[in-house]
């Protein structure tokens, strides 16, 4: 089940999602302009599609994995097929721009309540 987080989600909620999904991680897609996230999809593409349905612009969406049992910055892994955007200069599954990485980490720190 995909949930859209506009304000906060607890670390405990993420741990429960991980337990019911991939075990040690939760997939997420971050909208760096709207400051919202989608969590809980089997694929980043599913979460991306849900955010686009709700008005997000694809160019602002980045796929991440959240390892809720690790501290920052290791908690956030920048690895998703939706991140491959040759036309925008992102040639890998990661997030190549360190400024965008920092925006994502900052957003996750404000959304995930420990």
List key phrases describing it.
114 residues, alpha+beta, five-stranded antiparallel sheet, two-stranded parallel ribbon, 3 helices, 7 strands, 22% strand
> What count of helical segments does DSSP give?
3
State the order of secondary-structure elements, H for helix, E for strand. EEHEEHEEHE
The number of domains:
1
Can you count the beta strands? 7
Q: How many angstroms separate the termini?
A: 22 Å
**What best-fitting shape do the alpha-carbon axes yield?**
globular
Radius of gyration: 13 Å
What amount of the residues lies in strands?
15-25%
Q: Assign a percent range to the helix content.
A: 25-40%
Low-confidence regions? none
Strand order of the largest sheet: 1-4-3-5-6
Q: Note the main sheet.
A: 5 strands, antiparallel
Mean pLDDT: 96
Structural class: alpha+beta
In short:
The chain has three helices and seven strands; from the N terminus they run E-E-H-E-E-H-E-E-H-E.
């Amino acid at each position: 089940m995909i949930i859209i987080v506009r304000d906060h989600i607890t670390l405990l909620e993420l741990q429960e999602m991980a337990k019911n999904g991939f075990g040690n991680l939760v997939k997420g897609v971050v909208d760096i302009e709207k400051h919202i996230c989608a969590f809980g999809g089997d694929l980043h593409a599913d979460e991306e599609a849900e955010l686009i349905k709700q008005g997000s612009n694809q160019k602002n969406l980045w796929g991440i994995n959240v390892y809720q049992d690790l501290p920052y910055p290791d908690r956030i892994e920048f690895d998703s097929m939706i991140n491959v955007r040759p036309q925008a200069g992102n040639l890998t599954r990661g997030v190549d721009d360190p400024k965008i990485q920092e925006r994502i980490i900052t957003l996750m720190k404000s959304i995930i309540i420990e």
